Every structure is written in structure tokens, then in C-alpha cells.
Amino acid sequence: MDFIICILTVFKMYPLKLFIFLLLLCSNSFAQVTQLQFKAKFGSEDLIVGEHSFKSAEGEEIQISGLKFYCSNIRFWQDETIIWEEGNSFHLVDCSTLTTSIISFGQKINATFNRVSFDLGIDSITNTSGAMGGDLDPTKGMYWTWQSGYINFKLEGKHPLCTAVSKEFQFHLGGYQYPYQSLQTVNLKVKKQNSIIIYLNIEEVLKHIDWIKKSSIMSPCAESVLLAQKVAQAFSTTLTR
Amino acid sequence: MKKIATLSCIVFLIISAFSADKTSWGLSPKGWPAPNYDFTKNPPDEHKIQLGRALFYDPILSRNNTISCASCHSQYTAFAHVDHALSHGIEDRIGKRNAPSLINLAWNKSFMWDGAINHLDMQSLAPINHPDEMDEKTEHLIQKLQNSKLYPSLFYLAYKDSIITGEHMLKAIAQFMLSLVSCNAKYDSVMRKQASFSIQEAKGYVLFRKHCSNCHSEPLFTNSAIENNGLKVDTFLKDYGRVMISQNPADSFKFKVPSLRNIEFSYPYMHDGRFKSLSKVMDHYTGGIVMNKNLSPKLQAPIKLNSNEKVDIIAFLLTLTDKSFLFDPQYSFPKKNLLTPAKE
Lengths: 241, 344
Fold this sequence. Notes:
The structure holds 2 protein chains of 2 kinds.
Chain A: H1 2-13, H2 15-30, E1 35-42, E2 45-46, E3 53-55, E4 61-78, E5 81-85, E6 90-94, E7 100-104, E8 115-120, H3 124-127, E9 151-158, E10 168-174, E11 184-189, E12 195-201, H4 202-207, H5 222-233, E13 235-236
Parallel strand pairs in A: 1-12
Antiparallel strand pairs in A: 1-2, 1-7, 3-4, 4-5, 4-6, 4-8, 4-9, 8-11, 9-10, 12-13
Chain B: H1 2-22, H2 46-57, H3 69-72, H4 120-123, H5 125-129, H6 138-147, H7 151-159, H8 166-178, H9 186-191, H10 199-211, E1 226-227, H11 243-246, E2 255-256, H12 278-288, H13 307-317, H14 323-326, H15 335-338
Antiparallel strand pairs in B: 1-2
Helix pairs in contact in B: 2-7, 2-8, 10-13
């Protein structure tokens, strides 16, 4: 109570100064940095990695045990013009521990934009440039050891239609060499705001898997490229269903 | 003030002279092409080489701490595994291919017999993780190194950071491997006009240039290509080489052309070590080639050599032995780091 009285007294004494101070305080807290928020979904539900079972439209019980992917080369566009692009733009998005992964750019992008693009995976030059650190460190579990190359997208779990005895599937999508380059560019229309939410609907990805033909992918191949295209299409800025 | 400036200038010159000496292996020997490895991304440094050397000789790299890189890549045999056709892993597991010699790797464009690895930095991940070799997990290896008494300080010396990362570990191993430059064989002395071939070696050299140097081109004695050299497919190993990486049928049974430097000591020969001697290799190229649609165009015309000519070529091949390399103490087991009490 005393505190409020004190503030009121100060306000009476220095009305303009305090007003400016409060204004600065507020504007400071609103001047957030621009960021991308990745939210993994299973249909309309939040994707929980672990024991949790999800039911597909066909009634299949599905578990997801791991979901990681590389998001690189992030660009902000106004129509066909790049208005901002991140330098050294390589991010490993790991949905295994948090339902939301945030990529923050450490600054506010002031120019107006209506589109965001990023690459799902690692480009071929980076793939052939030797050992690198940070998110590109080959100990992050996203690098093949028997054959050079980053794994662009990794989805693991259990599905009743999987042909493996354990019903466990692994989709490790990668490959940077012709003809099996699995890198995909994702383009999303966005409204200008500081925090841009991008959904990845895993139910949509699983719909495209031909379980009889290929229940797991662990090397660069035609199926890897096809599935990577479907994953790219499963990113959106609006929730469907 | 002037004195200080002069003094610091002298000190700088001395330091740069020393560092130039240490990093001289980063430059090409005279007459060699420019290396393929990009040294600007991993500049040669004595501490990093010594760290890489310790890692290369330390069995900590394998899951049960029993074998090191040097177990299959021994200096005295040009860093190959003499007398062993196929690579040996932990618990006596046998691999599918012959451990190749490790020399002049900065000039290689790809690694492994099928070119599966695209960069020397990434090469060591393959044997570390392969179940038939070291059977370790890279992440677990980093933990073991971090918890050891030796490595945090060696990494600090090399990178000013005792937190061990995959990038630093791989680049340090690469630095040691890059330092394995063999360029002082008798052949090199002859090319530098400091020695001369015997009559037999000279005859062999002429024949070699006519029949072999299309693929085993000088001065590295490989063209770095991946070729089908007409070997019969081993029905037990069923190893089809490059096609298993590229999935392109035209790459079936193609393997990398190896360097012939120090070939005297790197027996047995071929990707699966099927030939125990150089005379068996000669017999293959002069009468054992199996025609197939992927056979290298350079081997389409039969090579005809009489037995004297074969011996002459072998005599020439022995001039590729580089004793100064095979016994150079800077490549040997690093007693200082691996046998000191800090290791216990």
C-alpha cells in the first residue's frame, strides 16, 4: 500500500519524466527479437515424443520416439525480394525434449515481409566441407558414419503396419549427391510478427509411407527424396483440422 | 624504442621461420599437384598433430579399449595391415576389406575403397563406429576422452578449450594423418637427379609408364579414380564396391585406384587382400582380368608382358619404398603422451 502511495507522490512531482520512463520500459519489453517457433503436431494434438500413443484416422496406434531435423538458410521475403537472411544459418531442431523449438535471430526484423523460406536439410557444399562445430558437429546423431553426409530429417517410432518384427521404424532422410538429393526448400506465407509459429504435422508425413514397400529408410535413395518432399509439405503456419 | 622494434622484428622472423619448418608438410613437394585438402580450414599446428597422433595410437577409440587406428595401420608397413587380407576389429571381428596404407592423404579426393567418405576429417568416424571395427559410438567416445586424465589438457593445448567436441577430435586426427607424407623413395631421388635407377629398374619404369601409369599416375601413383579392374567377384564376401554407395549399376565392382607408394610393405593387395605378392598382381593384369561391362576402358586392351618384363616392373615398384617415412620417429607411437603417469 505504501508503495502505491509512494509512486503516486512521485507521479505528482515529476509527471512527464515518469511517463517517459514508463513508456521506455513498456516499449523495451515489447521490442522483442524476431524468432521462428517450430511446433510438432500429430493432427491437431501436440506431438509428444516418447511413450504417448496417437491414433491415426484409420485407428492405428502410433508412437513417436524421435524427431529431429536441420533447418538452414533461413530467409525473409517481401513478395520476390529477400529482405533479410541469416548468416551461417544452420539449426538442428530437436523435438524430442521440447514440444516447441525456438530459433531466435537476436534482432528484430523491421522491414515488412510476407514470406519465410528455409531449407530442410544441409546443402551439398556444407556436406563436403569437413568437420564442423555447433549444430553441425557430427556427434549430434545427424551424420552418417559409413558414408559421408548429414541426415537432414530423422523420424523414429512405432507403427502397427511397420514390417519390422519390433514394429519400430526409422526414417533417416539425407543424401546430397545426384540423383538422390533430399534437401527441400520450404516456403511459407506469413503475417509480419515477431514470433512466427511453424507447425510440422507428423500425421501428414506418415500418411505418405508405403509400409509394405519401405518401412524404414536409412540411406540416400529415391524413396528418401520422395518422403523429404512430403515432409516439406507438412510444414504450415496454420493448424488444419 | 628503435631497439625494441628491431628485436621484435628478429623474434618474429625466427618464429615464422620455425613455424614454416613445422608446417612444410602442408605444402606440396616439388613437382606435385596442389593438395586437395583445404588447409585454411584446419591450419597445421604442432599441438594438433600431437593430439591427433595420441588419438591415432590410443585404443580408447574402440568400444572396449582394445584396438587403436594403429592396430590395422602400422607405420612400418606404410600404415597398412601387413599379412592381413581383411581388416580386424575388436573381439577378433573380421571386416570385408583390406586396410589400406595411409600416405599422402591430402591429395586424395575421396576415402575408403569405394569412395564412401568425402573428406579426410570425416574418415575416422567410419572405423570408430563400424561394428566390425572399433564398434564405438562417437558421442560415447567424446565422453571417454573428456573423462580421461590425458585428453582435456591435450585438447586445451591444441584448441585453447578443454571441452572436447567432435569437430576438434576429427580435425586433430586429420592433422596427424595429413602429416603422413611419403616423398623420399628412391624414385623421388631419381626424379630429383640425386640418384639413378639400375638397368632393371629403368626398364621396369619404361614398362610401368606404358602399361600402368594411366591409372597409377605419377607422382602420387594414383589418379584417385574409382575403377573396375576386372577382378572376379568373391562369392563369399559379395562386395560390389562403389555401387553399394551410388546405387548406380555402372559402378558395380568398382574400387578406388590405390597409390603404389611403399607397395613393397603394404601386401596383401587389392580391396580384399586376395593377392599375397606383387607377382600375383602382375599375373592378374596380364592374364587374369575378367571381362565385364564395367571394366575400366584402360584395361580393355590386354596387357602382354613376358616373365622378365614382369620382374622388371616389380623392380621398379620397389623403388617406391620410402624408408625415411617408414622409420620416421615423428610418426611413431607417442610414448610421451601415452606412457606417462597422467595416462593411469
